[in-house]
Design goal:
The chain has helices at about 1-20, 25-35, 40-45, 55-90, 110-125, 135-140, 175-180, 225-240, 290-295, 315-320, 330, 335-340; strands at about 125-130, 135, 165-170, 190-195, 210-220, 245-250, 255-265, 280-290, 305-315. By secondary structure, the chain is of the alpha+beta class. The protein has two domains: about 1-90; about 110-340, 2-Layer Sandwich (BirA Bifunctional Protein, domain 2). The radius of gyration is 39 Å and the shape is elongated. The structure holds 3,4-dihydroxyphenylalanine. The site of 3,4-dihydroxyphenylalanine has 11 residues, from strand 8 and strand 9. 3,4-dihydroxyphenylalanine (DAH) binds near residues 214, 309, 310 and 311.
Length: about 350
């Protein structure tokens, strides 16, 4: 009998030691069970009557030890709980507060316009070519038929890297034409989206950084008619099926002939409004047949191959599409401005 009862107390001591209540209510349950007025040790203490006299002292001490272990454990549990609460309040965390909803972001108008343009040309079989923004003089200018003393260099004020006359921030995505043509033989059919830089005074209408999408198609027998049809299809997809285009003769050093393309005003349907400055037309891009000299510069046989190219500004189209009156808004990244635009066009 006495061996058994000693064993029982020892078992309870083990139970107390290994108990691990954490929450406040669990710790209270622990207290009630081992230290409360009807705790499990009390009846065991009563059992001392049935213990042989010479063992009474040991038994009494064992039960007392159980009580002390329970008291120490309870204190330890309470301390742990309090310090966790202190920690939380020290960091000002209200563990009972409901979580804050995560706000969904939205796409930048530039990205929306850019993605739409890419999508349209990809469906026509154009691959996307992305290239470096820090470019050398040859790819940005010389290969594109704009040698050192060419007056067309003044058309684009250039940021050169510090102490360099060779490395610059590309002034147009036309540099990607040279990158692709020097490494790939025709057929070539790419669009090149990306950021470009020009030393311009920043105003509501101009910025020193903006984005362009370049297009390039080189193969045997590519004609101006191909260019015109491709651009008409693009314009209808981008600005609506009733959109008309017109090409005005222009000048770019890398194309011959060169043109600027207008679309019929999608705001007033060419009736005249302040978007089209009451002309009914809005200028969208520059284009032309790739100058044979550019093909030769880049190692492509101009007797065998011909091609067209075009380049368009992204900010300009975003501003027109969304009727934004200041280009600088596109570079401020104020979420209150940005979240107005839904993600697709
Ligand atoms: N690179 C020209 C610019 O920055 C745009 C351009 C015009 C690109 C005609 C072309 C093109 O490929 O054929 O203004």
């Amino acid at each position: 009998m006495s061996v058994e009862i000693f064993g029982k107390v020892n078992q309870i001591i083990e139970e107390i030691k290994t108990a691990s209540p954490k929450a406040k209510e669990e710790i209270e349950q622990f207290r009630i069970k081992y230290l409360g007025s009807k705790n499990v040790l009390k009846p065991l203490m009563g059992e001392i009557r049935n213990i042989a006299n010479e063992q009474k002292k040991d038994y009494g001490q064992l039960v007392n030890q159980a009580k002390q272990v329970a008291e120490a454990k309870f204190q330890q549990l309470k301390d742990a709980l309090e310090s966790a609460a202190e920690d939380a309040s020290a960091h000002n965390i209200d563990l009972t507060a409901p979580g804050e909803p995560i706000e969904l972001g939205s796409r930048h108008p530039n990205s929306i316009v850019m993605n739409r343009i890419i999508e349209i040309f990809q469906r026509m079989g154009f691959a996307v070519a992305e290239e470096r923004e820090i470019e050398d003089d040859w790819h940005n200018f010389t290969a594109m038929n704009t040698p050192e003393d060419h007056p067309a260099r003044d058309m684009q004020d250039t940021y050169y890297l510090k102490d360099s006359t060779e490395m610059l921030l590309r002034t147009h995505t036309s540099s990607v034409q040279a990158r692709v043509m020097t490494t790939t033989q025709p057929p070539i059919r790419i669009i090149a989206p990306g950021r470009v830089y020009r030393n311009e005074t920043i105003s509501a209408r101009a910025h020193c950084q903006f984005h362009q999408v370049e297009g390039l198609y080189i193969d045997e027998g590519v004609s101006f008619a191909d260019l015109k049809q491709t651009l008409l299809h693009f314009s209808k997809e981008m600005y609506g099926p009733n959109t008309r285009i017109r090409l005005r003769p222009s000048y770019f050093p890398f194309t011959e002939p060169s043109a600027e393309m207008d679309i019929s005003c999608f705001v007033c349907d060419s009736k005249g409004c302040n978007i089209c400055k009451y002309t009914g037309w809005v200028e969208i891009l520059g284009c032309g047949m790739v100058d044979p000299q550019v093909l030769e510069n880049c190692g492509i046989d101009s007797k065998k191959y011909s091609g067209y190219a075009f380049g368009m500004g992204i900010e300009r189209q975003a501003i027109l599409k969304y009727k934004i009156n200041d280009i600088r808004l596109l570079f401020e990244n104020d979420v209150r401005f940005l979240k107005q635009f839904s993600s697709t066009l």
